[in-house]
Amino acid sequence: KQWYQRRVRGLNEEERELLGSATAYLLIEGIIPPTLLSALTQDHLVKDDVSASFATSLFRTWLEERDMASLTSTLKKASLDPSLQDIYPAHKRSLDQIESYFKEKGMNELVNHVKAQRANANRKNFISRIKRFTNEDDYNTTEMGEYIRDAISQERVTSPYALQVLFSAIANSGDWASQENISDDFYKELKQYVPLFQTIIDTPKMQLELLNKIQEFCYDNINFLKTFQKIIFLLYNGNIIEEDSIIGWYYTHHSQKGQREFLAQMDKMVHWLENAEEEESDDDDDDEDEDDE
């Protein structure tokens, strides 16, 4: 490892690229261990782009012979951050900069890899922030709503993912999460978030996304299995989910996960909603007849 550090440092650009390419072949054949690459994180190699130029040549050769998955596995064995940020100087270390660097080099597999790393980092940050919000005693729903809307609009997370994380965080924020039978405290807590859901869910599509994310959560968490109808009724009363979305979900847009169980839970509510719509329609017809007279 020390020999590699000294050797890489003392080479010119062309020689360094040749050594990087040769190193890729040696790694692929198992002649040298992946741990050798950990030397690339040394400050004296990182600060002058020595590590980056060496690694770029190594990556290019590797991807000509193998795939991105095997390269990622080798980096992991070398204890290198999969985002590759460790081998770039501090002022060039953002994922946007690294992505641009590989774009300029025409290395699309690494561009996609960096994009995936960014998406993963965004999801982790989003989960952490939402959990922190929901676990605070004095949470600010306005601030939380702004954060979620910004995350969606800036494409750090998708709207279905945001709804999934938000509901999951609420559901797991209290003692009820470990109870065999979910207590009323959960529904009281969920009700507190109605204003937040109102600021986020502004289209029928988002309503269906929420319905399916709740369905999948209840399926994956067995102690919540029987809570689905009560949750949806609470959100319906809070004007989060409209009757058309519930009926559409029931007949055509539901998830396949546990569909028999959840459709059975919703059967009476859906029929009640349909009858209410028919009664409203009849009332409207009667009003029109009176107007004609």
Mean pLDDT: 91
Q: Could you say which structural class the secondary elements and strand pairing correspond to? A: mainly alpha
**How many strand units?**
0
Biggest sheet character: none
Spell the H/E element sequence: HHHHHHHHHHHHHHH
Distance between the termini: 96 Å
Provide a count of the helices.
15
Low-confidence parts lasting 5 or more residues at pLDDT below 50?
A: none
**What is the percent of helical residues?**
over 70%
Q: Which value, in Å, is the CA radius of gyration?
A: 27 Å
The general outline is elongated
> How much beta, percentage-wise?
under 5%
Describe this structure in words.
The chain is mainly α and 293 residues long. The chain contains 15 helices and no strands. 71% of the residues lie in helices and 0% in strands.
List keywords for this structure.
single chain; 293 residues; 15 helices; 0% strand; elongated
Helix and strand layout, with pairings?
Elements: H1 2-10, H2 13-28, H3 43-46, H4 50-65, H5 68-77, H6 95-104, H7 108-135, H8 141-153, H9 159-171, H10 184-192, H11 194-200, H12 204-220, H13 228-237, H14 243-253, H15 259-292
Short description:
The protein is mainly alpha-helical and 293 residues long. The chain has helices at residues 2-10, 13-28, 43-46, 50-65, 68-77, 95-104, 108-135, 141-153, 159-171, 184-192, 194-200, 204-220, 228-237, 243-253, 259-292. It contains 15 helices and no strands.
